[in-house]
Amino acid sequence: MKHASEPIQARLISRPNRFLGIVELEGKKVECFIPNPGRMYELMIPGTRVYLIKRTGDKRKTDYDLIMVDYKGTLISIDSRLPNYMLREAITKIELPEFKNYWIKQVEPTFQDSRLDFKLCNKLNQILIEAKSCTLVENGVALFPDAPTKRGARHMNTLINALEYGRAAVCFIIQRDDAEEWKPYEERDPKFAQNIKKAIKKGVEAYAYTCKVSLEEVTLSKRISVNLD
For the whole model, what pTM was predicted? Predict the structure, then answer.
């Protein structure tokens, strides 16, 4: 996915709440929207170089979105809206062997008590897919979630139930390129870890993909292993 416009460099001052950032831009304090509800404690450090995109709209409270962080020389995309767009694009272009010969029948399908991200179909089967954004990497290991997620834990149970009607999968989109494997962050959310382990044991598929992040675009890069140990 190409950025909507050329990213603008700034410096993070503070993050008053999950969705609001204060940055220094051209010598002035500016408010910006942070499109990610995760904690991101390791990224939201005052003084960190960040990148903004200019946004306009009648209902907006800020003029910018904070979309990337330069973390120790690694450019990280933090926009939690992007994974769905990237995954949709990759499936449509038949770039993921896991979903070859399937087409997207529905975006944001409702199944039981959950709204998932995609429903894929072919002539014989269907796949319900949930996509998750991941930004935390420690020593080459991508970890999810970085904060407790009751919704995420519920989604794993929903995917188990979806197996009665075909395939079910969860896709972790790691918005950086320095991860070699993915693991559930059990210390942060033992319930999610328990539920995804149960889901995979029942037959839910789990995939993790890193991303190439640049000042021009963010694209899926490679599939890495899912480690439940």
Answer: 0.94
